[in-house]
Structure formats: C-alpha cells, structure tokens
Design brief:
The chain contains 13 helices and no strands. The protein is mostly helical and about 300 residues long. The protein has one domain (about 1-304). The longest helix has about 30 residues, at about 230-260.
Length: about 300
Amino acid sequence: MWIFFTIATTLLWSLAELFYKKGARPTEKYAHLKICVSVGFVMGLHALFTLLTQDIGYNWKNLLVYAPVSFCYIVSMALSFFGMRFIEESISDPIENTSGAICAILCVLFLGETIAPVSWAAIGVIVIGILGVGFLENTGSTNRKKKLGTRLAIVAFMMPFLYAILDALGSFLDVFYLDEVESSPLLSITEDTIENVANTSYELTFFAVAVILFIFMKIKGVKFELPKQRDKIIAAVCETGGQLTYVFAMSGNGAIAAPIISSVCVFSLLLSRIFLKEKLTWKQYIFIGLVLIGILMLAVVEGD
C-alpha cells in the first residue's frame, strides 16, 4: 500500500501547487493572506479530527514548544503565496524545492554530518540552475519589471528563495524535535505518537494564525467569504491530504518514496504548463531543468 500513498502524496501536492497558483491572483491584494486563512482552517479541522479519533496523549504545551518550527513553515508558506501572485509557478516551485539541499548543507555545517560527493555534485547543479534563472530574470529576458515595477519585481522574485531558506530551517529544526524521543523537546510523546504530536502542533498553530489573519482582514474591511474561496480551499484540502498520505508513504518504504515524492516539482511544472498556460523562454527551461535534475539526484542519493 505504500506505493499507493506515495503516488497519492505526489499528486495531491502537485494539485495543491496548481490551485495555490490559481488562487493567488495578482489583482487581489490580500490573496496570499486569504490562502493562509484557508489552509489554516482546513489544517485546524484535521488537527481536531486527529485529537478526537487518535489517542496521542496531546500536551497543549507543545504548541509553544514546537512554535519555532511551526512559524518557520507558516511564514515560508505565506511568503510563497505572496510570490505566486507575480512569479510563474514554473520558476518559483523548482527554486522552493531547493530547501532540501539547503537543509543538507545546514546539517553539514552545524551537525557535523557528511555528504556524499554525488550529493555535492547535485547541489552544484542546483546552484548553477538557480544562478541561471536569476541571471535571466535580471537581464531583460522577461517583462516582469515593466509590468510590476523594479522594486515589486525584485521583492516578488525573492519570495521563492526566502521560502526555501525558512523551509530548510524548519526541516533542520525538526531534526532536534523528531530524531530521538529521549532528546526531543516535545512533551508526553512516544515512538508511535511523536510525528502526530508535532504535526498536530503545527496544524493548530496554523489555525491560530488563520484566525488572527481573518480578524485582521475583517478590521481592514477586506471582502472575504471563506466558502466562496474555491481554489484556495481545494489547495488547502490537497495540502492537508498530502500531509496525511505522506506519513503512510514514508513509513512503508521511505528510501523509494522520498525520490518519487520529490518529483512534485516536475508534475507541478507540467500542470502549470498545461492548465495555467505558463510560457517561458527555452533558456529558462534549461536552467529550471538543471534545478529539477539536481533535486532528483539529491533525493535518490540521500534516500539510499
């Protein structure tokens, strides 16, 4: 069954990326915040479902204990949603998926872990691809600066990079929280519940942030009726569903599941090309291809 959950995770997260992009309309000023609210409410419902149906012995102090990790993930997603309003998914998604490589480097620098030569080569391929995309973005090959203005174009283009850094930091911190039950800062956990406790803490925190953002937009007079946010809600459901199937995929055969799931960025690129009609130059596709190759190389090598 693990292969079913692996494929389901890949498809769900690819669809989530597609509907995130559809919901992040450039003309909708608070679109990124509305997506955050949609995701937060769906995750809150899933957290409630977990607490009601599973005996994980949840200690509510874990909301504070796990907060540093939760906020890394939440802020990174908010920045990603903002960038999606102005940057093609074909560009932003491969850049965001370099977070795995950044996390690996952090583990080498601060935890003394070693990386195989092939993995370093994969990271090098990723860096070349990103530098190429960045060079083309700033040498007149796109008309983004003309449409958005120089300042907004630069800010928008930085969002995928900030996402990658913060997401990598969250994954790096997760090493301390999820590696060993005995050394984890999380409270009232066992080998069987540690992942569920961490995920529930993350989802509850996202829900709290969603409530705050919802109140903020109401105060600002922003028109926002949650049931009418179809694309945003579909994205949130796919995101949360992917999290659920991911646990079963990785528990079955993680060494094979991880490389398959990392192909989310490839499927996302294809879906963006088919359904969003995104068009890039052939030079952009070459450098994006390098990023994707590097990510897949890293996933295969590190998964062995």
